[in-house]
Design brief:
308 residues, alpha/beta, Rossmann fold, 7 strands, 18% strand, Class I SAM-dependent methyltransferase, SAM-dependent_MTases_sf
Length: 308
């Protein structure tokens, strides 16, 4: 019989006064550096307000925002919590030096290097926009990841770790069927991602989608277990991972702000724009999670039968 862990009670305030305005202060500080008005979303009152108009300073490049993400989570990382969270998730899988792990999602190459270094396994990393590389003397081989048409080497991988793969788009049925085909019989899979709950959050959701560069809303919560079953997985555990991610986000931003205070001078205008954009993206994510519009879940399942 499948066993599911009890979901953690949602945290009522993802940022309190003591730590609170941490990301909001980052947005305000960055705006002051640029000489523009702060763009922090204000909480709605009775009716959902229209988000304030954006100022038009120099547009940040992906590389500049990538540099701030490197400082928050670790070089090449995308997942809050960085290496520590990756090791916690990979510890849920019975990896050995002889095993090959399928790892897909943003920052898969850097994540694969962390997991391979700690667990000694081989890693087939699939990252959006990544160029193909061979492992050479290392244990990580990297390929691109097309969320709209996911394709992995069939029957080759012992286990799988999928890290917010729907951030790049795609559907649960397409991704999980591809993962099922890629796994050997009895292979285990850990999937971590956001799901949508309830109706649209209106302009705040649209603004968050743009801030994170998402083409579509995350899948509905009920869509994942249904797709797992159709793909041939037995689902064992469903965990609400939202509180842990909120804590990791706040801790990382606190550390970054403290580090910036100790540095001489201020970031250049282009870097400050990117800092504000990155802070706003996380503020909007946490807000939607706080309101119950989004939920971050972890699923742990075993390949029970061939897909189809």
């Amino acid at each position: 019989m499948a066993r599911r862990s009890a979901a953690q009670a949602p945290e009522t305030r993802p940022w309190g006064e003591a730590r609170g305005g941490l990301i909001r202060r980052t947005i305000a500080s960055g705006a002051r550096m640029l000489g523009v008005g702060a763009r922090t979303p204000e909480p709605p009152r009775r009716a959902e307000p229209v988000p304030p108009a954006r100022a038009t300073p120099p547009m940040p490049s992906a590389m500049t925002r990538r540099a701030w993400a490197d400082r928050l989570w670790g070089e090449g990382m995308v997942l809050p919590g960085g290496a520590a969270e990756l090791l916690r998730l990979s510890a849920l899988l019975p990896l050995s030096p002889e095993a090959t792990l399928l790892l897909a999602g943003g920052g898969a190459h850097a994540a694969g290097a962390v997991v391979a270094g700690a667990r000694g396994c081989f890693v087939a990393a699939h990252e959006p926009g990544a160029a193909a590389t061979r492992p050479g003397r290392g244990r990580v081989a990297t390929q691109g990841f097309d969320a709209a048409a996911p394709a992995f080497r069939a029957g080759f991988h012992h286990h799988a770790l999928l890290l917010e793969p729907f951030r790049a788009g795609g559907t649960p049925d397409a991704l999980l069927a591809a993962a099922a085909t890629a796994l050997r019989p009895g292979g285990q899979m850990v999937l971590l991602d956001l799901v949508a709950r309830g109706g649209s959050a209106g302009p705040w959701e649209a603004r968050w989608l743009g801030a994170e560069g998402r083409a579509a809303t995350p899948p509905a919560e009920a869509a994942i277990p249904a797709a797992l079953q159709r793909a041939g997985f037995d689902l064992h555990v469903v965990e609400d991972a939202g509180r842990r991610q909120r804590e990791a986000v706040l801790e990382a931003w606190q550390a970054l702000i403290l580090a910036l205070r100790g540095e001489a001078g201020h970031p250049a205008a282009r870097d400050a724009v990117a800092l504000v954009e990155e802070a706003e993206a996380w503020l909007l994510r946490l807000r939607l999670m706080q309101e119950g519009r989004l939920r971050l879940l972890r699923w742990h399942a075993t390949m029970a039968r061939p897909p189809g």
